[in-house]
Specification:
Length: 170
């Protein structure tokens, strides 16, 4: 972590940086947990990891969302995210969500009515609203991990209880 000269006490770099404002950290992470819990876990994790790749968030790429793994998401499919648009591993809805998440991460202001309509047609109105909210909190968290240059964590912060360290093949 190179951008914070006097971090707070904490077991992970995330805790040390965000712990400088403990009330905000607690409130933000509670909102993060509520927001991501409302979304299909596989779609959420595919989008989260795609955004982490766009942002080059080493911290986020080192984690896996346990509910998505429990729902059957595999490292094989995760590795195929960059080729999702042509891969038979991905459903049309997953492809649309990934496309929307990428656009959200790169330039949310370029999202137009047609983009929203395509997402709505792919997953429905209520899931679309929850996904967009989740994209927002994931965007904020991931951009902060990049801004503070947080390394991949050796352990999962207590504020991310539904996550685990990725088990990558050697």
């Amino acid at each position: 972590m190179s951008r914070v000269e006097r971090p707070a006490e904490g077991k992970t770099e995330l805790d040390q940086v965000w712990g400088l404002r403990p009330h905000f950290y607690k409130e933000f992470m509670a909102d993060h947990a509520r927001s991501i819990a409302r979304v299909d876990p596989v779609i959420l994790e595919l989008c989260r990891l795609h955004m982490a790749t766009v942002f080059t968030s080493a911290f986020s790429l080192a984690l896996r969302y346990r509910p998505a793994l429990d729902a059957g998401l595999t490292e094989e499919k995760i590795a195929a995210i960059p080729r999702a648009y042509n891969s038979p591993l991905f459903s049309p809805a997953e492809r649309q969500c990934l496309q929307f998440a990428e656009q959200f991460a790169i330039q949310a202001s370029s999202i137009d009515d047609g983009d929203v309509k395509k997402l709505e047609e792919a997953i429905g109105v209520e899931p679309m609203i929850y996904l967009i909210k989740a994209l927002s909190v994931m965007d904020q968290l991931q951009r902060s991990t990049v801004a503070f240059r947080l390394a991949p964590p050796a352990e999962v912060p207590d504020t991310l209880p539904d996550f685990e360290i990725a088990k990558l093949a050697a």
